[in-house]
Structures are given as structure tokens and as C-alpha cells.
Design a protein that fits this description.
The complex is a heterodimer of chains A (224) and B (262). Chain A is mainly alpha-helical and 224 residues long. Chain A is built from nine helices and no strands. The relative contact order of chain A is 0.15. The chains are: A mainly alpha (224), B mainly alpha (262).
Chain lengths: 224, 262
């Protein structure tokens, strides 16, 4: 219970910083938007390819944006000795991990709503299979945010972290990319039954990444 | 036959040098590696017959299969060495260095596996690359461990690096089955087999089987040799760094410079 309360505290802190600085809103969101527009340039809208590959493009855009969101989540701990503050606060490192992950999840879900609307409008996609889409997004986003937080703290304090974190995260989240895309394809294609196995896979991945984070965040925070 | 590595160093080299490790220039293991690989080459190129269907292209198998085996062996050793580093009772810098050396060898042989598979796939499958579960997993594996090696190069103190890298190695290792599972699923659910996938294990006999077995043994000896040499080299590097630091401090003291001048 205390773990949960502390996690909420940490998540609240991160979201309050975001509400005041609006970095994710003003920088990461437009970034995702321009990625969607550039995809249309790459895949000529006239050929009718966009609606068919929309799920994959959506998740690529989310994946790239998530790298920036994670980078931001750990950049705010880098200045003014914030990390020392966290370490000395007496908050359980597992709660810090859960809190930071939750904050990134909230930011990414908001981003996905906007990018999703962008996909519907720009790529001419008809939305079907709502529940599957919703659960797949939730599970995939949790997996992405948890993985990002693990590698974010792993690379915290290192000189080349901005370039290192994407290289560490992207191969690791390959199953999320695969699961998210297939689940969306099935749901949008009207065969929701085929989406559920992928939603389960995304759930298992999210659980695995969260468990890893709870286990390793403490020792890594000490080190960074 | 061994000789001692002794670079001409500084004026402060009286007594035992902390970083002067003994390096075997030539060892039994090295000789065994050369011999084993030599025999393998003869077996694979001349003794083993050409495949009835695939012709000489099939001979690539004698390095492709052992290279793949070696890659997976190397990453498993990296994971085991990382656990040994993390476990307080067996913690030693050496395990960190072994983990790094093994991962380096693993990355090289993963890349080799992919390159050889590609070369073989062109004449036999008719394509350089196929999105088959094993290929795809191996490709993701290559990038996972490239990231691990990049993390190793970020220049921390040995203790910090040890912790970060040991944890990173275990996380990467845990991801491999998940990647493999999801890719296999993807393949079975969404992709029909477009090419025939020969089961090499079932129709391999006689000289071919023995050659393959020998190749795997030879590559395993090569692996032990490479990891041992790389670990020794890393130990020497660490020793050299320590010694340079000690020398710099001694020089400062000798010249009477204050260490606290800002």
C-alpha cells in the first residue's frame, strides 16, 4: 500500500513538472505528428498503401515518441542534483520506478489519442474493434514505458546516454512493435478474435518489463 | 613457451609492478585451435562430399552452424558471468571482463552467422534474406548485444561498469526467448512458408555428420581461446590504466606540486 502511495507521489511529481514545462506536449507531440506526415510522403497516399500499413506506422511513431518521452523523464532528474534527492528521499526505489513509469504511460496514452486521431484523419482508417485497440494500447504502452524507465536509469549519468538509450531500447521492445501492430491490424480488419493473442503477448511483455524494473531499479539508482 | 610483457615504462617501476601481467605468446590452447580449425578446413572442403541438391553451397553449413552455436554459447556465458559478478560471494572484476569478452566474440559470430546464412540462402532459397523466425530472432539478438557492447564502452569505474553491464546482460538475455516466441508466432499466424525449409538434422549422415560435429568442437576450442585472450588483454588494459594513474600521482608528489591547486 505504501509502495502504491509513494508511486503515485512520484508520478504526480513528474506529471506536475510536465504540466508546468509542457515539454512532452509542445515538443514530443508535434514530433509524432510530423512523423505521421512524413510517412505519407514516403508511401505516396495515392497508392492506397497508407490505410493498410497504418497500424505499423502508428506504432513506429509511438515508439520514436516514447524514446523522447523517456529521455525527458530522466533529464528532469539529471539537473540540480535531483537524483540525489530521490535517493535520499527514503522512497522505495521500486515505487520510484513504478511512479516514473506511470507518468510516462499517462503521457504516452495522451499522445496516442492524438496520433490515433491523426492516423484516422490522414490515413483514412475506419476504427473498429474498440476494446481490443484499447487494451492493446494500454499493455503496449506499459511495456514501452517500463522498458524505457529501466534503460533510462541504467544509462543515467553516462556521457553518451542520449544515443545509447535508443540502441538499448529498440531491439528490446521488438515484441511490442510486433504485438501492437498485429493486434491493431486484426482489430481494424474486423477480426477482433485474432487480436486477443497479441494483446496477451503485450500483457506478458508489460508484466516482464515491470518486474525487471522493480527488481533492478534500486541497485541501478544507487549507481547512477 | 611464454614470455613476459614488459613495456619500457616510467622511473617508478622499482619492485613488483601492479599491472605487469604475463602474456603467453604461444600456448597449447592456441596450437590446439589452429590444428582443430586446420583439420576442419580439410574435412569441410575436401573430405566431406558435396550435397546432392545444394552442391558446394552446402559446405557453408560447416561454418554457419558452428558459428550460430558459438554465438548462443557466448551469450549464455555472458549471462552466467554476469550472475557470478552480481552474486557477492563470487564477485570479481574478472567475471565482468569475461562477460564483456564473451559478448564481443558472440556479436562477431552472430554477424558471421547472419552473413553466412545470407550467402547460403541466395543460391539455395533464391533470396538473401527470409523473415523466418530463426533469422529474425538472430538479427534482433545482434542488435541487443551491440547495445550491450556500446554500454560497456561508456567508460565508468570498473565497479560501476560491472553493475550496469551485468544487469544489462541479464535483461537482454531474458528478452531473447520473448523475441523468439513473438517472432515464431508472427510467422505461424501471418506468413505462409514461401520457401522450403530443409531440416538439416534429419538427412545428414556419415562423413557430413562427422565433419559438422568436428566443426562444432573446433569452433568451441576457438571460442575458449578467443575469450581467454580477450580477457587477458582487458586485464592488462586495466592494469596499465591503474599504473599510469599511480605514476601520475607519484610524479606529482615528487615534483612537490600540490594536488589541490585549482
Amino acid at each position: 500500500m505504501r509502495l502504491l502511495r509513494e508511486a503515485v507521489l512520484v508520478a504526480g511529481k513528474d506529471l506536475r513538472i510536465e504540466a508546468r514545462s509542457r515539454v512532452v506536449f509542445a515538443q514530443v507531440l508535434p514530433f509524432g505528428g510530423i512523423v505521421l506526415v512524413l510517412f505519407a510522403f514516403a508511401l505516396d497516399p495515392d497508392r492506397g498503401l497508407l490505410p493498410r500499413v497504418a497500424p505499423g506506422l502508428f506504432w513506429i511513431a509511438v515508439l520514436l515518441a516514447s524514446l523522447l518521452a523517456v529521455s525527458r523523464a530522466f533529464a528532469i532528474e539529471a539537473d540540480n542534483g535531483a537524483r540525489d534527492g530521490l535517493r535520499l528521499s527514503g522512497i522505495d526505489p521500486a515505487a520510484i520506478f513504478l511512479g516514473k513509469t506511470a507518468a510516462v504511460v499517462v503521457e504516452l496514452l495522451a499522445l496516442e489519442v492524438v496520433l490515433g486521431a491523426g492516423v484516422v484523419i490522414l490515413y483514412d482508417v475506419r476504427v473498429t474493434g474498440g476494446p481490443a485497440l484499447l487494451l492493446a494500447s494500454l499493455a503496449a504502452t506499459t511495456g514501452l514505458a517500463a522498458t524505457g524507465s529501466v534503460y533510462g536509469v541504467l544509462a543515467a549519468g553516462l556521457r553518451a546516454r542520449e544515443t545509447l538509450v535508443p540502441l538499448l531500447v529498440l531491439p528490446f521492445v521488438a515484441p511490442v512493435m510486433l504485438g501492437g501492430t498485429r493486434a491493431f491490424e486484426a482489430a481494424l480488419g474486423g477480426v477482433t478474435s485474432e487480436a486477443w493473442p497479441w494483446v496477451e503477448l503485450l500483457g506478458v511483455f508489460a508484466l516482464m518489463a515491470t518486474t525487471i524494473g522493480v527488481l533492478v531499479f534500486g541497485p541501478l539508482l544507487e549507481e547512477s | 613457451m611464454t614470455s613476459t610483457y614488459s613495456p619500457d615504462g616510467s622511473a617508478h617501476s622499482g619492485g613488483a609492478r601492479p599491472g605487469a601481467a604475463r602474456v603467453p605468446r604461444w600456448s597449447v590452447l592456441g596450437a590446439a585451435t589452429v590444428l582443430a580449425l586446420g583439420v576442419q578446413a580439410v574435412l569441410a572442403l575436401w573430405v566431406a562430399p558435396a550435397d546432392a541438391n545444394q552442391g558446394d553451397a552446402q559446405r557453408l553449413m560447416y561454418i554457419h552452424v558452428p558459428a550460430a552455436w558459438l554465438a548462443y554459447l557466448a551469450f549464455t556465458v555472458t549471462a552466467v558471468a554476469s550472475v557470478l559478478w552480481l552474486w557477492p560471494r563470487t564477485r570479481s572484476v574478472k567475471w565482468d571482463l569475461v562477460a564483456g569478452a564473451s559478448a564481443e566474440v558472440g556479436v562477431v559470430f552472430t554477424a558471421l552467422t547472419l552473413a553466412l546464412g545470407s550467402l547460403w540462402g541466395r543460391p539455395v532459397w533464391g533470396t538473401w534474406w527470409e523473415w523466418d523466425a530463426r533469422l529474425t530472432t538472430t538479427a534482433v539478438l545482434l542488435f541487443l548485444y551491440l547495445g550491450y557492447l556500446a554500454l560497456r564502452r561508456t567508460g565508468d569505474s570498473p565497479d560501476e561498469r560491472g553493475r550496469r553491464c551485468a544487469i544489462a546482460a541479464l535483461i537482454a538475455f531474458a528478452d531473447v526467448p520473448v523475441v523468439h516466441f513473438s517472432v515464431t508466432w508472427w510467422e505461424t499466424l501471418h506468413q505462409e512458408a514461401t520457401v522450403f525449409n530443409p531440416k538439416l538434422e534429419t538427412n545428414i549422415t556419415g562423413t557430413m555428420a562427422w565433419t559438422l560435429l568436428w566443426s562444432v568442437v573446433a569452433f568451441t576450442i576457438l571460442y575458449v581461446y578467443l575469450v581467454r585472450s580477450r580477457t587477458q588483454l582487458a586485464e592488462m588494459q586495466e592494469g596499465l590504466e591503474e599504473r599510469e594513474l599511480a605514476n601520475a600521482i607519484a610524479e606529482r608528489i615528487e615534483t612537490g606540486e600540490s594536488a589541490v591547486t585549482v
